[in-house]
Structures are given as structure tokens and as C-alpha cells.
Amino acid sequence: MMIIFDIDGVIRDVGQSYRRALADTVEHYTNNNYRPTNNDIDDLKSEGIWNNDWEASQELIYRYSEGQGGDRLSLDLDYPALVDFFQSRYRGQNWDGYITTEPLLVTPDYFDSLTAAGIAWGFFSGATRGSAEYVLKHRLGLNDPILFAMEDGPGKPDPTGLFQVMEILNPGSNTPVFYAGDTVGDMQTVNLARQEREERPFLAIGILPPHIQHDPTRQTQYSDKLIASGAACVLPRITDLTPAYCESLLGV
Fold first, then answer.
1. How far apart are CA 55 and CA 164, in angstroms?
2. 120-124 and 147-148 strand pairing
3. Cα within 13 Å of Cα(174), Cβ side
4. pLDDT at position 248, please?
């Protein structure tokens, strides 16, 4: 079997980095009139098509304008400038921005345990390659992890990245594939992969992002959305997805 991981909300806590940069960007482009909450961002991402946080920022700005009686086309947003603003907050000038504050949700020992159990593993993320490699290589010390990042092809829920990581990990294999993510879009990625590769067992594993785990009601609502979107299970942390638990899901 193999496990492929999303990164944001699964490997690292982005509640005060990506999400903070997103909120800063929306606030800036709405002239400080609207700063989206985590619930606002969750609600947007539950639509399953806003995996890219630059595009999510732009969409929330558009929706705010429409809510004020405006027209998104009349805003004439400079998207590259919006991206630059976002990155100035998230990445900073020299990798000294919010990215430096991200708590890790896993240790290298977890990946060692998968390798020891004969489980291949890799990453399919909507993060930029620089951001993803910062956490995987610089923070976790992983040696040349298999990674499909934003620049490498279509974003989720398109399963292209998932398929590419699968083929690098184990070419031509039909072994079960687990994909662990924290959004509806991640679950939908697995649904589409299953439709294209019907001969291959795919299991979507929902992971609860840290920012909702202090609110039992919100946690239940979030879990229900992941299950409704195709999650085989929802776990509070990625380290609960052990080799033994994977086998139990497969009925081994």
C-alpha cells in the first residue's frame, strides 16, 4: 500500500500562516472593511474548488464587493499584485514571514514507521514547491521526498498530481492508495481518481485541521462534511493513520 499526504493542515498547522495571510490580503483589498474568519474560509473551501489560497483570497474579495452591491468585474483586481501581497505576508522577504511560525503536526519518526512497515509515501499539495520543501526538507529533514506541488500541474480536485506521485512511488502497481487531506477538495480528488482508475483501491482519509479542534460543534460539522464528501474516516491527527489502522480499513 501507499499513503500520499496533503501538507497544509495535515503536516503543518497553517492557521496562523496561510490563513492569516489570506485574511490579511482580503482585509487589505477591502480597505480594512472585511477580515474573513476561519469559519468564513472553511465555508469557502467546503465548496471543494478553492484549494489555491491566492484564488480563495480573490474570491472572498469579489464576494464581499457583491455583498455591498458591487460587481466583481468592476473591481479590476491586479491578480499578480494580490499574489505578491499575500506572499509578502506568508513567505516574507527572505523566508522570514508567517511561514516561520507554523507548528509541525508530525515528526520524521512517523515516516520512518511507514517505511519500516513497507508503506511507500509521498506528497500532493496545493502549496508552492518552495513552501512545501521548506517544511519537508528544512523543518522535517526529509531526504528528497516525492512531491507534486502547485507549479507541477493542475490543482485539486484534479487527480493528476495524485497519479504522478503514485507512479513515482510504485510504477504500474495496483496496491491500495490512501490520500490524507483536511478539505472537501481533498476528498473530491480521491473520488475523481477512483472514477478514472476503477481497478485501483483508493481511500480518502480526512484529517481535522487544528483550528477547529477546540470547538466540538464545529468539529462535528467539519467531520460530517468530510464524510459526506467521501472520507473513509476522519482522524484528529495524521499520526493516527498507522500501518495497523490502514490494514484495519482494508479489512486485513
1. 24
2. parallel
3. 4
4. 96
Task: Name the residue with cell 522570514.
Answer: 96
Measured in degrees and rounded to the nearest 5, phi and psi for residue 156 equal -65, 145
Q: Please answer whether residues 2 and 121 qualify as being in contact, where contact means their C-beta atoms are separated by less than 8 angstroms.
A: yes
Do 10 and 180 touch, CB atoms closer than 8 A?
A: yes
End-to-end CA distance of the chain: 12
Three-state secondary structure of the chain: CEEEECCECCCECCCCCHHHHHHHHHHHHCCCCCCCCHHHHHHHHCCCCCCCHHHHHHHHHHHHHHHCCCCHHHHCCCHHHHHHHHHHHHCCCCCCCHHHHCCECCCHHHHHHHHHCCCEEEEECCCCHHHHHHHHHHHCCCCCCCEECHHHCCCCCCCHHHHHHHHHHCCCCCCCEEEEECCHHHHHHHHHHHHHCCCCCEEEEEECCHHHCCCHHHHHHHHHHHHHCCEEEEECCHHHCCHHHHHHHHCC
- Sorted by sequence, the CB contacts under 8 Å of residue 212 that are 6+ apart come out as 38, 42, 218, 219, 222
Q: pLDDT by residue (tens digit) across 189-236?
A: 999 999 999 999 999 999 999 999 989 999 999 999 999 999 999 999
Reference 124, options 164, 95, 92; nearest CA is 164
